[in-house]
Specification:
The structure holds 2 protein chains of 2 kinds. Helices cover about 70% and strands about 0% of the residues of chain A. Chain A is mostly helical. A two-stranded antiparallel sheet of chain A has the order 1-2. In chain A, helix 3 crosses helix 18, helix 8 runs antiparallel to helix 20 and helix 20 runs parallel beside helix 22. In chain B, a hairpin with a 2-residue loop joins strand 1 and strand 2. Chain B has 3 helices and 2 strands, in the order ααββα. In chain B, about 75% of the residues lie in helices and about 5% in strands. Chain B has a domain of about 60 residues. A two-stranded antiparallel ribbon of chain B has the order 1-2. Chain B is mainly α. The radius of gyration of chain B is 19 Å and the shape is elongated. The chains are: A mainly alpha, B mainly alpha. At the A-B interface, helix 5, helix 11, helix 12 and helix 14 of A face helix 1, strand 2 and helix 3 of B.
Chain lengths: ~575, ~90
């Protein structure tokens, strides 16, 4: 059976599973549609949250970011997990005690302001829509690359699957499909990693294998450091991402951004009790950590494999480099996709892959007769996708990886679509414009909103705007600078008033968007980027992606200052805050 | 100064204890990630943990394990705190 058939079978089975769950979990009330009836166990919610959180980016791109970033990639590892400590300790229990349905609802009630609720909805929609476009793209790409359907067809299939379980089941359907998707994605990620770790270091546990030794007895990381340094790259274990300051701020932005993402926060509304909310955050991190502690091993081993395949012998000796004609099958397969490109710049029929941006090394390279790095494209995404092929694993494992990537993208897309549609039906419609609609009408509205959101997401997936690549900066930047601070102030300060909160949200959001746009172009149209995406122009050397934490500081400062010009929050609101700070209803 | 009810006293004492717990746990959170993983990573890298430099290991794995432990410690401590102040959800 060939790879394509295996992929159809395994992906098909996984989709059948999701549809089966959808039919079983039809939502019959707004409570079921928005929060799964409030009955999800902490363990189940933890698993669903993990799948909800781990998107195509975590599954496919993160290992690649680490493989080429080395130590610098740690910002993603720490940033995307550390946020869960913030969620567990500072958000989940209080949101659960508040106990209604959406994040803007809390913001609106806590800050006794429809303006605050609307601003929160706008933030939520910008964050979630930009995020979901990335997922739809991932679905289309996975289909077109592995199932050889065209990109558009793949997208329609993905949309149809999500439509089925999200529109029918709402949060209930989404929760249980996410659990199934977690199981698929975690197997898909760890099975190849275990094989590769076993093969490279003799230890099947990737977390330990990373610290183990390769065949000749050298520790793996030492070997990797040396191999890539010999080619002019920085040392893997110490290569910094920008600067230490940038890494600090970037990690902070990712952590507080994670804790400010509405589609993650709403997951904590689905458990029965406040103590369950804390526990489910713990379980969520356990399930996330399984993947996130495997990723560094996947990254390092893949980087070593890739580099040594090309540079199979001593640097400088012609026969130390792989002959292009003798390249392995996986290399050929991935060249077809355009994720790997070779150009024989010195005409010797061999592949030289090295850091040709480093002035010190290029002089040496010239002595060897090298004329520029000949791997003109090495897309980071191949690290996870090509890994099983590089390790000569059977086709069904590769098919499993495809199913895993799709599971990751679909599970996150569903969570995002629910956040968007509940903001529309519950916050905008019921909360502000048509407060008198009945429960049944609201349930119908939420289904309509979900269909609309899928259509919009699909439209942008089919016509990705230029800014699809900059979505991380926007989504995390806004969540970090606008949503997280206002939630913190809402819970930990009784007195913060609506004037401070609204001013803070708007300023935090504007400052962050301004910074991102001035470096990446307004709405990412690069001709309008008036400061250019150039390092010397970055504030203190902080990249646009990392700026959210600075935006958060601005938010807090402005909120504090403006709040002094108006009366403190009214007594009923202060009472609300007091009541959400304790778990029991008394 | 108004006489506070027993409920308000309990709530205030509970909240103070909660903040104390948060401060301790978040300090550890900060130290294992920003401290060990970024600020002191070079110093820690002088120490070897198997085939790992310690700083690198903290940044890529150790901090994550610490985060998991922190959350479960928090769960345990808060369950006890809820019971102590009679705010646990036995009746929900």
């Amino acid at each position: 059976m060939d790879l394509k058939t295996w992929t159809y079978i395994i992906v098909g089975l996984s989709f059948a599973l999701y549809i089966g769950i959808a039919i079983w979990s039809k939502a019959k009330s707004t409570s079921e549609f928005y929060v799964a009836g409030g009955n999800v166990s902490p363990l189940a919610n933890g698993m669903a949250t993990a799948a909800d959180w781990m998107s195509a980016a975590s599954f496919i791109s993160m290992a690649g970011l680490i493989a080429f970033g080395g130590y610098g990639g740690s910002v993603f590892l720490m940033g995307w997990t550390g946020g869960y400590v913030l969620l567990a300790l500072m958000l989940a229990p209080y949101m659960r005690k508040y106990g209604k349905f959406t994040v803007p609802e809390f913001i609106g009630e806590r800050f006794y302001s429809r303006t605050a609720r609307i601003v929160a909805v706008i933030c939520l929609i910008i964050v979630s829509v930009t995020y979901v476009i990335g997922q739809m793209k991932g679905v289309g790409v996975a289909f077109s690359r592995f199932l050889e359907t065209d990109y558009n067809t793949g997208l329609y299939i993905g949309m149809a699957i999500v439509f089925f379980y999200a529109v029918l089941g709402g949060m209930k359907g989404i929760t249980f499909t996410q659990i199934a998707q977690y199981v698929v994605l975690i197997f898909a990620y760890t099975v190849p990693a275990m094989f590769i770790s076993l093969k490279l270091t003799g230890n099947p546990i990737p977390q330990l294998g990373l610290g183990g030794s390769v065949a000749d007895g050298t520790p793996l990381l030492e070997k990797l450091d040396k191999v890539i340094q010999d080619l002019g790259f920085g040392q893997y274990t110490t290569a910094v991402n920008g600067s230490k300051l940038n890494m600090f701020v970037y990690t902070m932005t990712l952590m507080i951004g994670t804790a400010g993402l509405p589609h993650v926060i709403i997951r904590f509304f689905t458990v029965p009790k406040v103590s369950d909310a804390r526990l489910s955050a713990g379980w969520a991190l356990v399930f996330i950590a399984i993947l996130y502690t495997t990723a560094p091993a996947v990254a390092a081993m893949a980087r070593l494999n890739l580099t040594e395949t090309i540079q199979s012998g001593t640097v400088g000796e012609p026969i130390g480099n792989l002959q292009y004609e003798k390249r392995p099958q996986w290399f050929k397969n991935w060249e077809k996709t355009g994720l790997l490109k070779f150009e024989d710049k010195n005409g010797d029929g061999r592949i030289q892959y090295y850091n040709d941006q480093d002035n010190a090394f290029t002089t040496k390279a010239a002595e060897y007769g090298w004329a520029g790095s000949e791997m003109t494209t090495v897309d980071k995404d191949i690290i996870v996708l090509a890994n099983p092929e590089i390790a000569n694993l059977p086709d069904w494992v590769i098919a499993l990886v495809v199913a895993g990537g799709l599971a990751a993208a679909l599970s996150t897309a569903a969570g995002l679509l629910l956040a968007i549609s509940s903001a529309i039906s519950h916050d905008l419609l019921k909360g502000i414009f048509r407060p008198d609609i009945s429960e049944k009408q609201e349930l119908n509205a939420s289904r309509f909103a979900m269909v609309g959101a899928i259509a919009v997401a699909g439209y942008f997936g089919l016509n990705p705007p230029d800014f699809a690549a900059g979505t991380v900066a926007i989504a995390f930047g806004l969540a970090a600078s606008s949503i997280f601070p206002v939630l913190m102030m809402g819970i930990f300060s009784k007195k913060m008033n609506r004037q401070g909160a609204v001013a803070g949200m708007i300023t935090g959001m504007s400052v962050t968007l301004l910074y991102v746009f001035q470096h990446k172009g307004i709405l990412f149209i690069s001709s309008t980027s008036f400061l250019g995406n150039m390092e010397p122009n970055w504030f203190l050397g902080i990249t646009p992606n990392a700026f959210g934490a600075i935006g958060a500081l601005v938010n807090f400062a402005v909120a504090f200052a403006i709040s002094k010009t108006a009366p403190e929050a009214p007594q009923e609101v202060q009472d609300l805050v007091e009541s959400i700070r304790v778990p029991s209803k008394d | 100064m108004a006489i506070q009810s027993n409920l308000q006293n309990r709530r205030q004492a509970y909240w103070r204890a909660n903040i104390r717990i948060l401060t301790i746990l978040l300090s550890i959170w900060f130290i294992v990630s920003f401290g060990c993983g970024i600020l002191f990573v070079d110093q820690l890298n002088q120490i070897k943990l198997g085939g790992f430099k310690l700083g690198f290991w903290m940044a890529q794995q150790g901090s994550i394990y610490a985060f998991v432990v922190l959350i479960f410690v928090y769960v345990r401590v808060m369950n006890k705190l809820d019971q102590k102040f009679n705010f646990d959800e036995k009746n929900n």
